[in-house]
Amino acid sequence: MRFGAILVFIIVLNSCTPQEEGRPAGILSPDSMAVLMHEIHMAEAGIQSTALEPVEIKKAVAGARYAEVLSRHGLDVVDLQVNFEYYRNRPEEFREIYADVISRMESETARAVNRPVVP
Predict the structure, then answer these.
(1) Is the full-model pTM beyond 0.85?
(2) Which DSSP helix (H) or strand (E) runs through 51?
(3) Could you write out the three-class secondary structure of 94-113?
(4) Which long-range contacts (CB under 8 A, 24 or more apart) does 34-37 make?
(5) Are 97 and 33 in contact (CB under 8 A)?
(6) Distance CA 109, CA 47 (A)
(7) Which of 26, 41, 73, 112 has the smallest CB count inside 10 Å?
(8) 34 in a domain, yes or no?
(9) For position 21, what pLDDT does the model report?
(10) Is 26 helix (H, G, I), strand (E, B) or coil?
């Protein structure tokens, strides 16, 4: 009887403990993933808008920019792949993340358009 009471207490206590939305360790929250993906897309836009030749130089610059973004988030390429795959297998969450990414990009574009031109 005593064991049963302890077991019930543990189950009740565990159900009261906030859970991390069932995500495995190392998986970013949807908000953090949206920030990361936004930064990656902005780095890619910067790379594509730069007229670097030959292609090897452009690839080196791209690698450095991606590494910088990942470093700010404490991630490496494998971590990015794991997170991307996790959310790719959850299409509804992935759509919400990309809706957030698009919103961030639209806000950034609106701010850039409304900035005064500096001579």
Answers:
(1) no
(2) none
(3) HHHHHHHHHHHHHHHHHHHH
(4) 34/97, 34/98, 34/100, 34/101, 34/104, 35/73, 35/104, 36/69, 36/73, 36/75, 36/80, 36/83, 37/97, 37/98, 37/101
(5) yes
(6) 17
(7) 112
(8) yes
(9) 58
(10) coil
The two structure tokens encoding residue 21: 């939305």
In sequence order, the 6+-apart residues with CB closer than 8 A to the CB of 71 are none
Q: Are 68 and 62 spatial neighbours (Cβ–Cβ below 8 Å)?
A: no
Of 45, 22, 49, 117, residue with least CA distance to 30? 22
CA gap 41, 49 in Å, rounded: 12
The owner of tokens 């490496």 is: 76
The number of domains in the chain is: 1
- Show the domain range for 36: 25-112
pLDDT in tens, 68-86: 999 999 999 999 999 999 9
User: What letter represents residue 31's amino acid?
Assistant: D
CA dihedral 109, 113, 114, 119 (to 10 degrees): 130
Is 55 inside any structural domain?
yes
In a domain, 35, yes or no: yes
The tokens for 65 are 């920019």
Give the number of residues written for the chain: 119
